[in-house]
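Bug #77: duplicate submission created two jobs. Keeping one. Sequence:
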Amino acid sequence: MEMTKDEMLELGFKFHGHRCPGMPLGLRVAWSAMEKLGVSRAKDGEVVALIETGDAHCAGCFGDGVQVATGCTLGKGNIKKTYYGKIALTLISRKDNKAVRAYVLPDFFAKMEQSPFMQQRSTGVPASQVATDISQPSIDMVMSMPDEAFIGVSDVFDYELESPMVQFKRVKCSKCGDMVIEKYAHVMDDEIVCQPCLEEVHTL
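Kept job's structure:
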């Protein structure tokens, strides 16, 4: 599925659920990383993204932009959070075991923190409730700035990842009856159990 960057931006907003500068920031950083690494949007698991945000992160929206740009998604299993609390991305090519790290430069944070959008967000206003005339200037700034003004990208470096085989074999949990991919099942008292049932037994 080939898309222009404008189409990807609009897809990103629809996927993300609201208009904010965080999602476009993920697009821009990911595009820079992809260009440096020489990869296209992933169709399968050939590209892996490690995003350095976390939970309850002020720019968690960054991750959705990375997903839209790179094609690395939760469903494919080729995107993970490192929980470093940063706004950065390591993009890895399984084809040649190479990677780059792309990140937002420190000076950009000062500009963004002074924006009316971030001032409203810092008071607890949900992003979806920030007026368009306040959010759009921040979005326009992210989309119009040259890469070198706010994005840093490392040199390409070696990064070897294991390529796990997709699992198809399923077994039935003897406790709840759910079907479980075999590698995630456990044996307890000579019976197959799933992880939740195992934990339930151990907490009784």
